[in-house]
């Protein structure tokens, strides 16, 4: 019983922290220490601590017992008293500069990612990513001033993957929107701001992870890329994955999920369970733009991200 209460409290604290990470900066609740063995809690108190709803706009007005205070120390103690604080920070490594290369497109020459079959200890065959023989720079040179698909006609900038090229964790979205097209950096608009909060909610910073898209040019009116457009562009993403070799890839929304996993199954079915991409763990979750439209789904994404966090924590 004691244990269950401790676990429940730790979970509630994490959710409070997540609310804060999602923008409820002055949100503070007074929670007893999880570790205290003398701690006894009544049912009504537990209810008092339960987050009202996973719905940001209502947080500030939510009852009960929410004090509006400057709370960096509260936040710190929340961090320290939850499992989040035990997450190792990933070493900072060089981020690749955005759009450094302006080169004419080469001939279409995209070697397929060849996978190796590796017998495991128990004799079954699993497929693993091969060692890549190329570098990110070479992939960027190959992309060049790409005109391989019609999306190049509407683009301002090609939006390459950015972030930590030695990351354990990678996020993949669909395609650039207006802000990304203007800046040449993925996920910098409203969805990007929410993605940053999602990353921070598991104790990481945006610079710790690698962020990319299936398509690198903005589709007209932000429409979903066609399968032909996705097929051409995703080869570069797959080659980058083979170079970077992240331990976990979070695929955001239907386009990323279906293209990486080569499935027609939808995100609602696939989210929340680890999938496999040649030995790399893949966690499908909702796209942040979808979460902006339906904030009630944030809770599910939070559950998915906790699984990602726990997996990375255990590496
Ligand atoms: N949506 C995406 O899928 N990717 C971006 O880079 C921005 C918004
Ligand atoms: N459809 C998408 O493409 N993404 C979501 O996250 C939800 C529905």
Overview in brief:
Helices cover 38% and strands 10% of the residues. The chain has 315 residues and is of the alpha/beta class.
- Order of strands across the biggest sheet? 3-5-4-6-8-7
Q: Which of globular, elongated, flat, extended, rod-shaped describes the shape?
A: globular
Helix content: 25-40%
- Which small molecules are bound? uracil
What is Rg? 21 Å
* Structural class by sheet pairing and helices: alpha/beta
Please give the number of β-strands. Answer: 8
CATH architecture of the largest domain: 3-Layer(aba) Sandwich
Number of domain units = 2
CATH topology of the largest domain: Uracil-DNA Glycosylase, subunit E
CATH class placement of the largest domain: Alpha Beta
Low-confidence stretches: 33-112
β-strand percent reads 5-15%
Would you tell me the overall average pLDDT?
77
* Series of H and E elements: HHHHEEHEEHHEHEHHEEHH
Question: Keywords, please?
Answer:
single chain, 315 residues, alpha/beta, Uracil-DNA Glycosylase, subunit E, 2 domains, two-stranded antiparallel ribbon, 38% helix, 10% strand, binds uracil
Describe the protein.
With 315 residues, the protein is α/β, with parallel strands linked by helices. It folds into two domains: 2-86, no CATH class; 136-313, Uracil-DNA glycosylase-like domain (Uracil-DNA Glycosylase, subunit E). The protein is built from twelve helices and eight strands. It has helices spanning 2-21, 43-49, 56-59, 72-81, 136-143, 178-183, 190-201, 227-244, 253-261, 267-270, 288-293, 298-313, and strands at residues 116-119, 125-128, 162-163, 169-173, 210-213, 248-252, 275-277, 280-285. The strands form two sheets. The chain has a six-stranded mixed beta sheet. A hairpin with a 2-residue loop joins strand 7 and strand 8 (280-285). Helix 1 (2-21) crosses helix 4. It is globular. It starts with a helix and ends with a helix. 36% of the residues are buried. The structure holds uracil (2 copies). Residues 173-177, 180, 186-187, 189, 191-192, 213, 289 line the site of one uracil. The site of one uracil has 13 residues, from helix 7.
């Amino acid at each position: 019983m004691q244990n269950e209460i401790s676990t429940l409290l730790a979970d509630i604290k994490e959710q409070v922290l997540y609310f804060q990470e999602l923008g409820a900066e002055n949100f503070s609740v007074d929670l007893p220490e999880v570790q205290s063995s003398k701690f006894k809690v009544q049912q009504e108190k537990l209810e008092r601590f339960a987050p009202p709803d996973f719905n940001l706009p209502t947080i500030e007005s939510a009852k009960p017992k929410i004090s509006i205070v400057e709370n960096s120390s509260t936040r710190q103690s929340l961090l320290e008293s939850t499992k989040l604080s035990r997450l190792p920070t990933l070493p900072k490594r060089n981020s690749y500069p955005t759009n450094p290369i302006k080169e004419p497109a080469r001939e279409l020459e995209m070697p397929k990612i060849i996978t190796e079959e590796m017998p495991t200890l128990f004799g079954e065959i699993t497929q693993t990513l091969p060692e890549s023989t190329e570098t990110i720079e070479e992939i960027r040179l190959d992309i060049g001033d790409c005109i391989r698909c019609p999306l190049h006609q509407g683009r301002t900038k090609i939006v390459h993957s950015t972030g930590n090229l030695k990351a354990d964790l990678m996020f993949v979205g669909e395609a650039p929107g207006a802000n990304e097209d203007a800046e040449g950096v993925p996920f910098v608009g409203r969805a990007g701001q929410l993605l940053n909060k999602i990353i921070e909610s598991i104790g990481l910073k945006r610079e710790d992870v690698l962020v990319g898209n299936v398509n690198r040019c903005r589709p007209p009116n932000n429409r979903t890329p066609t399968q032909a457009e996705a097929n051409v562009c995703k080869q570069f993403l797959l080659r980058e994955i083979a170079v970077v070799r992240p331990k976990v890839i979070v695929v955001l929304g239907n386009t990323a999920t279906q293209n990486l996993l080569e499935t027609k199954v939808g995100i609602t079915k696939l989210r929340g369970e680890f999938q496999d991409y040649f030995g790399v763990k893949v966690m499908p979750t909702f796209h942040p733009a979808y979460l902006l439209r339906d904030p009630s789904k944030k809770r599910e994404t939070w559950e998915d991200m906790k699984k990602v966090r726990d997996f990375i924590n255990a590496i």
